[in-house]
Design brief:
- By secondary structure, the protein is an alpha/beta fold.
- The chain contains 15 helices and 19 strands.
- The protein has a six-stranded antiparallel barrel with strand order 11-12-17-16-15-18. Strands 2-1-3-4-5 form a five-stranded parallel β-sheet, with helices on both faces. Strands 7-6-9-10 form a four-stranded parallel β-sheet, sandwiched between helices.
- Strand 9, helix 11 and strand 10 form a beta-alpha-beta unit.
- The protein starts with 6 loop residues before the first strand and ends with a helix.
- The model has no long low-confidence stretch (mean pLDDT 95).
Amino acid sequence: MNEKGYRFWFATGSQDLYGEECLAKVAEHSRIMVEELNKTGILPFELVWKPTLIDNASIRRLFNEANADEECAGVITWMHTFSPAKSWILGLQEYRKPLLHLHTQFNQEIPYDTIDMDFMNENQSAHGDREFGHIVSRMGIERKVVVGHWSDERVQKRIADWMRTAVGIMESSHIRVVRIADNMRNVAVTEGDKVEAQIKFGWEIDAYPVNEIAEYVKAVPSGEIETLVEEYYSKYDILLEGREEKEFRRHVAVQAGIEIGFETFLKEKNYQAVVTHFGDLGSLKQLPGLAIQRLMEKGYGFGAEGDWKTAAMVRLMKIMTSGMKDAKGTSFMEDYTYNLVPGKEGILQAHMLEVCPTISEGPIGIKVCPLSMGDREDPARLVFTSKTGPAIAASLVDLGNRFRLIINEVDCKKVEKPMPKLPVATAFWTPKPNLAVGAESWILAGGAHHTAFSYDLTAEQMGDWAAAMGIEAVYIDQDTTIRSLKNELRWNSIAFR
């Protein structure tokens, strides 16, 4: 995960109607706000103060400088006084990065005993921000609006969340997905329009024959493989379960070779996400399992059976959570089977092998077990159970004439009993508002069986990303009803056609 040194610019709007003394106070106030916001430790990226903007030329220049600065991931605007909105038109027309409108003011409380017209003229964000908001809405520009006093922790956290979304927007155009073979035969939902995806999201999706990547695996020196196997043995529980240790180790070594070979290929060719297909393994000895799990842990996106959309989404969500303190994890996931016992409803999540260990809780073990699909030797994989708590599951689907992002809030739980015969990593969750409504809503919206899953992102963040990409977002949460969802889907079919 190569992190860029992103920063965000803070741009304050005003005008010269009230004289230099007023402008000096505007600059002082905005400087204090930026300094204090940076001190909170809540914002994941540095906020950079910029001089007060008072006319068309300075506004246009700032936005174009932001466009050209590779470290600038977005601009936060605030109108301290009244800033005539026509001055912002050219700059906004030429601006190409994420935009947040912070609707706040320097003082938290009205100074009842001393307030006069000078104070009113100088501190009129309630006036100025409405003027600015009008022109952005009239121009049809997508932006985030955050309202409240800048010292409020809730406001600061919303800004922080938007910053991570903005980085996701910026990095989306740098995501390159390598498809090893094609989609699973006759499967519809994992396919899609790759050209339209590049137009909408900036993703590059390329295909390589499996044996070209397999050559990288074959070329891995035995010494590097043995070193990585030793790392596995020191880091994970070795679950032989009756297998002879030497044979077990040989199977594990195959995955070590795949991990090193795949990563070498991905770095050399500059790909950040990868898809595999159990039906097209070429000269690979095993279906990549442990190897893929480890690559996801390092920040690569993954999708099974050729699912390039989910691979890109997993990579995107890992970028958005990169460096997050106390992160609980992000992974590729698949709906498998239900528990329909009243009061205990939920969905068991897993995959044949490939679930990211960042979501694990407790010990992680290595198992070598048969796999009926793939027609290769028994693959090694990491096994564990997931953390508990709130999370989101997101599915990007191609409806033929547009993309739709479906975002379901879920509640991850512990399974009621152990599953000793199930040799894969698992999660168990109940979708909101409940299994019946959540599953029906998912199906009505056309959601896939593969998801990009995260404990660390919110539905609002993913919806903001979708809005920035110009695509439809469908939320399934505590407030969802089937009637309201059906109406929303009907309205969206008109709005996004």
